[in-house]
Design brief:
heterodimer; A: mainly alpha; 5 helices; B: mainly alpha; two-stranded antiparallel sheet; 2% strand
C-alpha cells in the first residue's frame, strides 16, 4: 500500500481546480481584482504542489527545465514586443486596438495579452525559484 | 524616425537579451549579443549626428501629454554619453568573447551576455529618462543586473562583495525613492521639466524640504556612484568580479548615477537654487576628499585590480568636484570626465585582466619585468596611466586643466592645490608599474622578449579603446562646448 494515497487522490481533484482558478484570475485580470502576477502565482503554486505530491520525476516529464526556460523567455519576448509596440504606436500613429465594451473579456486593448504573458512568466519563475531552493542548484 | 532611436535602442537590447535565453549554444549567444550591441552602437552614431544639429529631442512614450506619459529627453550631452557607453560596451563584449571562459564557470557564461544587455539598456534608460520614477525603475534594474554580473564567478569573495553591494545600493535607491516621494508631495509632478517649472517660482516657501530632497538625492545617488565616504562596496565588488564585468561596472555603471544627480541638481532645480544651499559645498568637499583619499588608498593596495578600483573612487572625486563647483563649465567638465574616464578605465581594467591571466598572479609586485614579456600590452597600460595622471592631450589632463581654470573663474584658487596633489598621488601608484615593467636590470633578468604575447585579435578592443581615448582628448575643445545639462 502506498503511503501518500490520500494526498494523491485529493491532488487529482484539487490541482486542476487550482490551475483553472489561476487561468481565470489571469484572463479576468482587466475586469476584476487580480491579473497576471496574482494568477501566475496561483499557477506556479499548483506546479509546486504537483512537485511535492507526485515527486520530481513526474513533473520533470511535463515541465522540464528546458521547457520552463523556454516558456519564460517566450513570454518575456511577447511582452517586450507588445509593450514596445504600444510605446511606439502613440507617436507614430500606428493602429491601436480599441478599448472595447467594459465587462467583455476581449476589451481593454493590450492589457489582456500582457496579463497572459506576465501570468506564464510568473508561474515559470515561481516554480524555478522553488526548484532552486529544493535542489540547491541554479 | 531618428527621433525614436532612444527607445528603439532600449527595446533592441532588452528584446535580444530575452531571445538569448532561448539558446543553449554559446556561440549563438555571443553572436546575438555582439550583433545587438553593434546595432545599438550604429544607431547611437545616427542619434549623435542628428542631435548635434538641433537643440533637444523630447520623446513622449505612452501618452503625448507629458502630464500623463513618460518622457525621454535627449540633449547633446546625452547623445554623446550614449555613443561612448555603447562603444565601450561593444569593446568589452569583444574582449569577453575570448576571456570569459577562463574566469567564469561554463554553465554561467550565457548569463553574462543576458545580464549585460539588460544592464546597458537600463543604463541608457537612466540617461535618457526625463521622469523621476522611470529613472528609479531603471536604477533598480541596473543594480540587480550589476549584482548578477559580479556574482557570476561563484567564489566566496564574490558572494560577500555582491551582498555588500546589494545592501549598500538598496539603501541608496531607498533614499532616492524617498526623495522622489518628497518632491512629488511638494510639486505633484514626476516629470523633471514640469517639476522645474513648478519649483523655480516657489522653492523659497519650502526651503527645508528642498534641502532634504537635495540631501537625499546626493547621498542616495552618491552611494551608488561610490562618492568618497560611501565607496566601501566598490573595491570589493569591482576587484572580485570577472574582468569584463569589472570594466563595465567601473567604466559605465557608477557614471550614470552621477549623471542623474546632475540632471536632478541642474535641470530639475537650477544653478541659482542649488548654489543658495549648503549642499554644493558638501558635494565639493566630498569630491575633494575622494580625489585625495581615493588615491592614497590606491597607493596602499597590493593587488592590481583593487588598485585600479580605488583609482575609480579617486576619479569619481573629479567628476563630483566638477559638479560641486556649481557652474556651467564645471558640469561640462564633469560630463567630459565621465566619457574620458569611461574609455580609460575600461581599457585599464581589461589590461589588468590580461596581466592577471598571463602571469597568474593578482599582485602588483609580480608584474616586474612585464614590459619585456608583454611590451604592447604594457604600452597601452602606460597610455591609460598617462591619461589618469594627466599628461597633456589625454583626457585626464584636459579635465584637470579645465577644472583648474574653473576654480580660478569662481574664485576658489586654493582648490587647485587639491587637483595638483591628487595628480601627484596618481603618479605614485600608476608609474611604479610602468617603470618596474620596462626598466631595471633586476626586473628584466631572465625575462624573454614577447614570451607572454597575446593574440592581436584579443588586444584589438583595448587598442581601439585607447585610440578613442586619444580622440576624445584631441577633440576635447569641441566636446566641452557641446555639453550642457
Amino acid at each position: 500500500m502506498e503511503r501518500d494515497i490520500i494526498l494523491k487522490e485529493v491532488g487529482k481533484i484539487l490541482i486542476p481546480l487550482i490551475q483553472l482558478f489561476g487561468l481565470y484570475v489571469i484572463i479576468n485580470g482587466h475586469l476584476s481584482p487580480g491579473g497576471g502576477f496574482s494568477g501566475g502565482t496561483i499557477l506556479g503554486t499548483s506546479l509546486i504542489i504537483m512537485h511535492l505530491i507526485y515527486g520530481k520525476d513526474f513533473i520533470m516529464k511535463i515541465y522540464s527545465r528546458k521547457r520552463l526556460i523556454t516558456s519564460l523567455s517566450i513570454s518575456l519576448i511577447f511582452y517586450t514586443l507588445i509593450k514596445g509596440y504600444s510605446f511606439l504606436s502613440y507617436q507614430l500613429h500606428l493602429p491601436h486596438p480599441s478599448a472595447g465594451v467594459t465587462g467583455r473579456i476581449l476589451s481593454a486593448g493590450f492589457i489582456l495579452p500582457l496579463n497572459i504573458a506576465v501570468g506564464f512568466l510568473v508561474a515559470s519563475v515561481f516554480y524555478i525559484i522553488f526548484t532552486i531552493f529544493i535542489n540547491s542548484e541554479v | 524616425m531618428t527621433n525614436y532611436i532612444p527607445i528603439i535602442n532600449i527595446l533592441i537590447l532588452i528584446l535580444f537579451s530575452f531571445v538569448m535565453m532561448l539558446f543553449k549554444d554559446k556561440k549563438k549567444i555571443k553572436y546575438i549579443s555582439i550583433g545587438s550591441n553593434l546595432v545599438v552602437f550604429l544607431l547611437s552614431i545616427f542619434l549623435m549626428v542628428y542631435s548635434i544639429s538641433r537643440e533637444v529631442i523630447t520623446l513622449s512614450i505612452g501618452n503625448p501629454n507629458n502630464l500623463l506619459g513618460i518622457e525621454f529627453y535627449i540633449g547633446k550631452s546625452e547623445s554623446v554619453v550614449t555613443l561612448v557607453f555603447t562603444f565601450v560596451m561593444l569593446m568589452i563584449l569583444w574582449f569577453s568573447n575570448f576571456a570569459l571562459e577562463k574566469e567564469v564557470p561554463e554553465n554561467r557564461i550565457s548569463f553574462f551576455y543576458v545580464l549585460i544587455n539588460i544592464l546597458l539598456a537600463s543604463l541608457l534608460g537612466v540617461i535618457y529618462s526625463n521622469d523621476l520614477f522611470n529613472s528609479y525603475v531603471f536604477i533598480e534594474v541596473s543594480t540587480l543586473s550589476a549584482c548578477g554580473i559580479i556574482i557570476l564567478k561563484d567564489k566566496k569573495e564574490n558572494i560577500k562583495a555582491t551582498v555588500k553591494y546589494l545592501i549598500m545600493s538598496t539603501i541608496g535607491s531607498g533614499l532616492v525613492l524617498m526623495a522622489i516621494a518628497y518632491i512629488y508631495s511638494i510639486t505633484g509632478h514626476l516629470n523633471i521639466s514640469l517639476i522645474h517649472e513648478t519649483i523655480v517660482g516657489n522653492y523659497q516657501y519650502h526651503e527645508n524640504a528642498v534641502l532634504i530632497i537635495l540631501g537625499l538625492f546626493t547621498i542616495g545617488l552618491g552611494i551608488k556612484s561610490a562618492v568618497f565616504p560611501l565607496h566601501s562596496w566598490l573595491p570589493d565588488a569591482h576587484s572580485s568580479a570577472p574582468t569584463p564585468a569589472s570594466a563595465a561596472l567601473s567604466a559605465l555603471v557608477i557614471k550614470v548615477y552621477v549623471f542623474m544627480l546632475m540632471k536632478v541638481l541642474f535641470r530639475m532645480f537650477n544653478y541659482e537654487i542649488v548654489n543658495s544651499f549648503i549642499i554644493m559645498d558638501i558635494i565639493l568637499l566630498l569630491g575633494s576628499m575622494g580625489m585625495i583619499f581615493g588615491s592614497i588608498m590606491a597607493i596602499m593596495q597590493k593587488e592590481l585590480k583593487r588598485m585600479v578600483a580605488y583609482s575609480s573612487v579617486a576619479q569619481m572625486g573629479y567628476i563630483v568636484f566638477g559638479i560641486g563647483l556649481g557652474t556651467v563649465t564645471g558640469t561640462a567638465i564633469a560630463i567630459y570626465h565621465i566619457i574620458g574616464h569611461a574609455v580609460t578605465k575600461s581599457s585599464l581594467f581589461l589590461i589588468s585582466g590580461l596581466f592577471i591571466e598571463k602571469t597568474g598572479s593578482k599582485k602588483i609586485e609580480d608584474l616586474k619585468g612585464i614590459g619585456r614579456e608583454m611590451p604592447l600590452t604594457l604600452g597601452l597600460f602606460t597610455l591609460g596611466a598617462f591619461s589618469m595622471v594627466g599628461i597633456p592631450i589625454l583626457p585626464g589632463f584636459i579635465s584637470k586643466w579645465y577644472l583648474s581654470l574653473t576654480c580660478i573663474e569662481v574664485g576658489r584658487v586654493p582648490l587647485i592645490l587639491i587637483i595638483l596633489a591628487s595628480s601627484l598621488l596618481n603618479v605614485l601608484y600608476y608609474f611604479p608599474i610602468v617603470i618596474n615593467g620596462y626598466f631595471g636590470n633586476d626586473n628584466l633578468d631572465g625575462k624573454v622578449y614577447n614570451s607572454k604575447k597575446v593574440e592581436f585579435i584579443r588586444i584589438l578592443p583595448i587598442v581601439l579603446l585607447v585610440l578613442a581615448m586619444m580622440i576624445i582628448g584631441g577633440i576635447s575643445f569641441n566636446l566641452i562646448e557641446l555639453f550642457n545639462i
